[in-house]
Specification:
Blueprint (H helix, E strand, L loop, with lengths): L1 H15 L2 H20 L12 H17 L1 H10 L7 H8 L10 H11 L10 E10 L5 E3 L4 E3 L6 H14 L9 E9 L5 E9 L4 H17 L3 E7 L3 H8 L12 E3 L7 E6 L1 H14 L9 H10 L5 H16 L7 H5 L13 H22 L6 H6 L4 H21 L16 H12 L9 H14 L15 H4 L21
Parallel strand pairs: 1-6, 6-8
Antiparallel strand pairs: 1-4, 2-3, 4-5, 7-8
Length: 501
Amino acid sequence: MGKRICRRKYDWCRKKGGTADAKALQKQESVVEHLTISIPLNKVKLSTVDQVMLMKVINLLSYLSTLISGAYQMLRVSGCLKLPSQRTLREYRHIGTASQGFSRLLDEQLMKAAEIDTLELWQKCVILILDEMSIHEDLVYDKHSGELIGYTNLGDINNHLLAFEKSLSDPGPPEIANSMLMFMVQGLFIPLQFPYCQFPCCSVTGDLLFKPIWEAVYRIERCGFQVLGITFDGAPANRRFLKLHNASSSHAITYKVQNKYDPQRFIYFFSDPSHLIKTARNCLASSARHMQLLSESVSKALHLLGGPDAEETANFIALFDKFFDSFNVSNYTEANRHRKPFRQPYRSSDDFRLDWLQNEFLGYLTKWEEHVNGIEGINAKTRKSMLLSPQTLLGLKITVNSIVEMVKYLFSLEGVKSFLSNRISQDPIEKFFGCQRQRLSTNENPNAYEFSKNTETLRVVNSICRPSVHGNCRATATTDTIDLAKERRPLHKRRSHRKTL
């Protein structure tokens, strides 16, 4: 009977909306049919259900119940599907307490999410991504901890330093956070994108970033991973954090630092390639050349139609297009499909792109700087407008030197066959921020308490949550598909603290 109804809906959708809509409906019907047939939640207790399928089912139901709670409740009351109650799902979503900073429970969740015991040495390589998201300035009383959530909290030492600094200038209550500093662990060879910890902050500086970042590195290394890199944008606080690692007074570029928890390895710093492309595009547009895209097609059009006056601009665009392709390798087929060799996966330590980035690309930027600095009779403002911004140039040099040395190190590890360079970008944390805003419906600006509660849930339903289609990150195949049978980790449920009479 169910298959007959699904077939009628398929024929109706194909007649009204086309084959695509019909296939989408058919896929949804198959998922629902699979859930209702494979897992009769009304007959079997949740604690005895097969853990392989239950993990994804609870994730899917939890995500639906939080995103459209009214529709979920109506579907449950109607009786067409035997669904668990909101209370039951809440015990799976909130296995811990919503808190800021580090905790032992987060370390355990990270190890379980990565299945650390089943990984080989090369699969334990990760990078740490950090970024900030604006939040609503608000204080919320937490009835579980008895604290007011919303004040800045960057760790015990940083909190004392901030309080002392504020007492000298403006004695009064602590500052209320207006942004949330988020740390995410990204696997270089495994599909791990774990929102690790968050810190409510207000106008954070590079000095205050030093302790949380290195404590995060220590805790992640203690869990059994190898932290090979740290990715951030070009904010002033991040540049100040880099300068703190330059012990000498020279102007040498700090793109790596020795891992003090494993002196045989280095930690490489990356400025997000997408942000670098945006700033380079903005510098080009501000110089009275109204370019919209740094792409190969625009470069070829300028070569063909622009004449000699546009030749250097075309070369600039072509170089940055290759630079972005070198850092945007996301799969094994895109290079052949688009006929762009710079999008091929890295397969050896002597890849031709490594030499191109270090010699031709950085050499082009160096010659450009030397040429502009050698021009006489112009003021500093004019000279500055003829170059990329100093922050962009610094980020490009740091990122290029880091990727060259890190790729060479990766292929020195036994078992590494290929590497996808988009694993160092900030796209996962940007998509996570999009999921944060989705959970609040029309209210896209959470406060510190709501952000922490949402993060706690998203750690469980992260594989089900789809990023916004209007976000600033392109969707990939891993974020567009849901594999219900892929997950084989046991599902953890919050312990019940109810008192028995």
